[in-house]
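Dear V.,

Thank you for sending over the compound details. I've combined the ligand you provided, pyridoxal-5'-phosphate, with the protein sequence from our construct and run the structure prediction for the complex. I'm sharing the raw inputs here so there's no ambiguity about protonation or stereochemistry in the SMILES, which I know was a concern on your side last time.
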Amino acid sequence: MDALHRSFLEHLAQTSPHPLALDIVHAEGCHLTVRSGKRYLDLVAGLAVANVGHRHPKVVEAIKDQCDRYLHVIPYGEFIQEPQVLFAKRLTELLPAGLDSVYFVNSGTEAIEASLKLAKRITGRTALVACKKSYHGSTHGSLSITGNETKKYRYRPLLPDVSFMTFNSMEDLDLVDERTAGVVVEPIQGDAGVRVPDPSWLEALRVRCTAMGAMLIFDEVQTGFGRTGFTFAFERSGVVPDILVLGKALGGGLPMGAFISSSERMHLLTHDPVLGHITTFGGHPLPCVAGLAALEVLIGTDLSLNAERMGLLFKELLVHPLIHEVRGEGLMLAVELGDADRVQRVVYRCLEHGVLGFWFLSCPTAFRIAPPLVIKETEVKSACAIILSALSDS
Ligand SMILES: Cc1ncc(COP(=O)(O)O)c(C=O)c1O
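Below is the predicted structure of the protein with pyridoxal-5'-phosphate bound, written out as structure tokens.
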């Protein structure tokens, strides 16, 4: 172990006993390079962040240009900052009516927290409904609506008045009632191991929320920005939420989250109490220009279509007696092996051969494929060849 690795373990707080500890010196497109010079084909994309590829030239150029103008100047909301305004305007041009006002924050979990507050403020109610096996972030509110008990039991008490429905269960829609302020759902569950619901369930959920006066909140932190073959995953079912939560790829590789709703609803955060939600760094100009540049690349080069095509290619090529199924849409995929130990062996074997796959928080029997959406056919083919050979060796 070299000095840098030792300092990493000694001076950086750790999140698990066995971090991969790849010592990254360079990243570009779909590739990561470590200090030894070894290159990895990245099937993780910084966990669904680098959708337009690592260090896309347009993103880097926008960041450098903004660095020459100004960085942080004031907490969110007070000054007119052109990067914020242009990014919000462009985002809302892509969204349906009712999602026309953007509040920028710093991360996915912060956007979830704020969306819960907004739902309470709009409805004057307190109850929340979320899904079993969901993941919405690591802060207290997000953890409260996360449906994975093993992540929560050491941190109670959490938010009261939260109930959990089974994802994709029509019967459980009854849990949404006149007391419900908000219902938080990932339109495709990510860390549950990529679970795709029936569009009819999302439609029924929309109807139930409207009937009960509850806010439907879609957490598109992981599914957003082309990953599932659509710019936003809700487009697949056509079901439009009352509040849309974004993060990860939103900032083009820089930290950022956002929650989006109607101007009328968002206006409630300005009074009674005034400054109903505030943040110092939310809407920082660097992630705004990076996010806008990444969004233009995503739309301009139709990366959603590439995600759909390359996702289908992964599904076509990943056929092996040990693979139970390849679940998901676009480039948000789970390779189900039905055996957690085998998943470990396969992920490590792939790593030895220069392919970086990853795990899920709530599904140890599958591994994740979520590469940058710029991945090419040749790269998918070589990744699949390595995965299949790792499976045969496992
Ligand atoms: C669906 C979903 N929501 C929220 C979050 C939390 O985002 P962040 O890690 O930026 O706080 C994540 C992170 O993985 C996520 O996958």
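A first observation: Residues 107-109, 112, 135-137, 186, 190-191, 219, 221-222, 247 surround pyridoxal-5'-phosphate (CB under 6 Å).

Warm regards,
I. M.
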